[in-house]
Amino acid sequence: MVDDENRENEGDLIIAAEKVDDKAINFMATHGRGLICLSLTERRVEELNLPLMSQNNESRDSTAFTISIEAKEGVTTGISAQDRAVTIHTAINNNKSKDDIMSPGHVFPLVARDGGVLVRAGHTEASVDLSRLAGFIPAGVICEIMNDDGTMARIPDLIKFSEKHKIKIGKIVDLIAYR
């Protein structure tokens, strides 16, 4: 999913959080190379009692990171692809509560603004909107795509990436138009 060239001008891998498994996390870590984050609704963040990482958010695009998390059960060190998938499934499970997670951890939640991409045209909101529109729990897992040399992948790079891995490219602007 790519955002506007006048915004971050980046592409993120996106998957519905409830569809995440160790293979998806490993693909993101290996091929995306960016920070793997869990996009959650404002309501779910409140239910899990996750404070923002910074009360004075000075990031250019107001990305709303919370403190990092880990599942209390079912994980070992927390960093493996399987452990991160377990943490993600714990965090999105409505039968689980703040008592089932701990901090710090190896999963980085983001708060999606209510109203989704119509309010903020970011990858965080796009992942929640796409998951909701597909009939899944409104939560997504995202990872920025970096080139082999560590630079951020731009449209020409992302086209090659999508062809190589046989994945589609979506645009946030198109999601906004659809909504």
TrEMBL record:
It holds the Pfam family DHBP_synthase. InterPro entries: DHBP_synth_RibB-like_a/b_dom (IPR017945), DHBP_synthase_RibB (IPR000422). Keywords: Lyase, Magnesium, Manganese, Metal-binding, Riboflavin biosynthesis. Signal peptide: none annotated. GO terms for biological process: riboflavin biosynthetic process. One of its GO terms (cellular component) is cytosol. This is 3,4-dihydroxy-2-butanone 4-phosphate synthase. The keyword Manganese applies. One of its GO terms (molecular function) is metal ion binding. Transmembrane segments: none annotated. The lineage of its organism: unclassified sequences, metagenomes, ecological metagenomes. It comes from marine metagenome. Its cofactor is Mg(2+); Mn(2+). The keyword Manganese applies. Pathway: Cofactor biosynthesis; riboflavin biosynthesis.
